[in-house]
């Protein structure tokens, strides 16, 4: 993600200069022709963000002196196929996002909206950002985008809480010899007289990792509370992942476990293993992923993903991806908007352009 | 439309420089006091974009070398009278824009949201942009804005599809000796098992023109499919238009034909003829336009538009417009929010400021 | 509110230079941990803008020569805790903002969306901006933000019209020896056949003040029309306020009177008195405010607000505020999302970070 920095020269013009201060306008515009095939119906569509999520953002850093800095980050999803934005949630609960707005959904800074104070002791960050539930997508060479995205959940126990509002987070500083991590807490903001649901949307997590040269490994634990109903309940996610970068080849993988305390409680387990080969200006990607749960009938989905990205510059690439899923135990996961029957397969192809600024 | 270019100097600062790369923030803010009179009710309002549609946008070009470039364009409608944005459609069908949001409508990049690859062979453009149906507005000196906008449709067979989502377009290169044009295809993105409506919102068009010195002429053919109902059906539009620029005077006109295959199929025909006189820093505009259909009772509306624009600079103007419509065959077209009875007249006046950046 | 000016150097690059022309990207990101306590329920939340409203904006000025300039201002509310925007109104009436959108509310330029022509005779400003009703918040050291905001209304007779759409305003020039002021008119834009409600949302006001060195005083009169119902009716607001700046200490206060012609007409009266002490890089604030009405049972709320702001730079501060309200006559005002019973107290605390760019 490259960017245009409105940096110190400009800040000097307006009299706000300090050596490290800057405000940056940045974004990614990524569109792909997508085809999905399933046993019930196929679909052809123009999709947004099949290589990297389309977005528009504003961020800045102010040097406060003494090793301290203040910063902000506003990042909106942009659906390049339609021009629409994406919704956020006010309270990390279903009540906070009333209904899908389709073509009337305006831009929100739902991808990230934060203000931070940073020192050599770390960063205090307030606002909306990734929850710890999100980090199941870090060791996916498809970056959780497009037809090739790793199959590391089933249904959507965590999809609404990969990003959370009302978050207070502490991030470790970057000077710990490769150790990185964070602790986050997010608030559902319910009144104290809300009874059984008063903790709904409250949650938090811990992430700890080590990046030592070519090797990277991390462990994340996350939990968000919901009063138990047919579709909601406490969600506890554990993710462990690792990556090793050889010179032109890297391998990565992770294991994910979700405990979901709906009325009929179940456990989900899955993960992926992937490799990336750099070939000239290109990159070949292959991944196997799967996820299954202990819910009645034990639904499970297995996925093979193949991709090629050809870089035209540091900022621009064309790409193609292919993926195929196999469902069992009643699962009906289908790709690229296609519809597939229980225990049937689905496949899909993406062909796209990704441009960053 | 002038603009602020965050151009190569800045890109150099952030280390992304290449000679032709740039990111531009641009926009138009245009507000007018508008008065409309009709036989049923009059209205006084502050309107947005009566000379040129109010907007805010971000666009950029990256030189990829070898005559190739990548570019993006994000352009949002802004209603300056209220601060609201404008909606888009997810699928070029009524289902893609659920309901009018009024004052809660946030910004979307519904005017344009595209990513492109361009070479000497032309431009491949993906995203949301004008459909070929739009080009009926090119030879209107009022630019399809304000009380004076040409009356080249009746009711709204094409208003929802002047801009389309999920478009794949090819634009001819600019080095063809004045010949210009495009081919576009847009997708409704329906599942293949959607039955009679599976092609709804699919469409496309071809546009071809020639600009030779003072003379410009173009022909556009567009079609979008909808299963036939009382209000929807295949729409096929044909437009031919031309302009001739004398030194201080220009004339222009066009002819439009729409075939609309609703349950009671009908054909609409119309067009406009207009002249523009440049007088010092000012511009006097006059236009006659009309549109009628073969639907029961043969509704038809005829319109006279007069306008004056006084340029205070290249970026800023004040303007005034007057228009009057005459309805027949049961038509009830009224101007500037007034309400008029069947076969009654309506008139309106705009007085405004337009500022571009 | 500091800003990044994309100023003359840039405009020169794009060939649009004139000495004073500039376009500015600006904003404030302010987040606070907030706790509210009431007799019915407490609440803990992450709030946005508890010191200064979070926002993102674009504004610019073009020098037209001869002492004239054109300018625009687009300013959106940003809820940093969620990334959502804030709604506007199309017509200054309840019908113009259909329903609360929660997490799906996109960005609108509801804080301000204007285009202006300015000369030595003053400024003509068209669009959405503060109404004259707003100026009850000028002499509040908490700036009408956060738990400490002055209690100068009860219920919400004026909250929907502190900012109005469809406004035509004239602002006095800045060269009148400290005299400042404005006249504004805003339109409800109803059709002339709307009967009793045809003037709903129409209104206007006058503001006149004098700023002489350390002393500032102003008087504002505002009125907006609504057909009389149980909850709506003509609202007439009068505000008089003053401030005196000693070197490290300033005092300020105002008196507010609202006449509300609902079916059961009533009058509201209130005001505040406040002091600010500047202590090194910090600022201590204390305020007493109260507001009561003549409606049945004569509801009244009294409030004590205390705050401390510690400036880390001109652009960044950390802050803490405490406030407590006492209700009588059936009033139920509660702080920071808490819920309190009739005639019960409520208190709240804010701890936050404010960063401007």
From TrEMBL, chains A, B, C:
<dbReference type="GO" id="GO:0015288">
    <property type="term" value="F:porin activity"/>
</dbReference>
<keyword id="KW-0626">Porin</keyword>
<feature type="domain" description="Porin">
    <location>
        <begin position="8"/>
        <end position="329"/>
    </location>
</feature>
<keyword id="KW-0732">Signal</keyword>
<keyword id="KW-0406">Ion transport</keyword>
<feature type="signal peptide">
    <location>
        <begin position="1"/>
        <end position="19"/>
    </location>
</feature>
<keyword id="KW-0812">Transmembrane</keyword>
<keyword id="KW-1134">Transmembrane beta strand</keyword>
<protein>
    <submittedName>
        <fullName>Putative porin transmembrane protein</fullName>
    </submittedName>
</protein>
<dbReference type="InterPro" id="IPR050298">
    <property type="entry name" value="Gram-neg_bact_OMP"/>
</dbReference>
<dbReference type="InterPro" id="IPR033900">
    <property type="entry name" value="Gram_neg_porin_domain"/>
</dbReference>
<dbReference type="GO" id="GO:0006811">
    <property type="term" value="P:monoatomic ion transport"/>
</dbReference>
<dbReference type="GO" id="GO:0046930">
    <property type="term" value="C:pore complex"/>
</dbReference>
<keyword id="KW-0472">Membrane</keyword>
<feature type="region of interest" description="Disordered">
    <location>
        <begin position="84"/>
        <end position="104"/>
    </location>
</feature>
<keyword id="KW-0998">Cell outer membrane</keyword>
<dbReference type="GO" id="GO:0009279">
    <property type="term" value="C:cell outer membrane"/>
</dbReference>
<comment type="subunit">
    <text>Homotrimer.</text>
</comment>
<keyword id="KW-0813">Transport</keyword>
<feature type="compositionally biased region" description="Polar residues">
    <location>
        <begin position="87"/>
        <end position="98"/>
    </location>
</feature>
<dbReference type="Pfam" id="PF13609">
    <property type="entry name" value="Porin_4"/>
</dbReference>
<dbReference type="InterPro" id="IPR023614">
    <property type="entry name" value="Porin_dom_sf"/>
</dbReference>
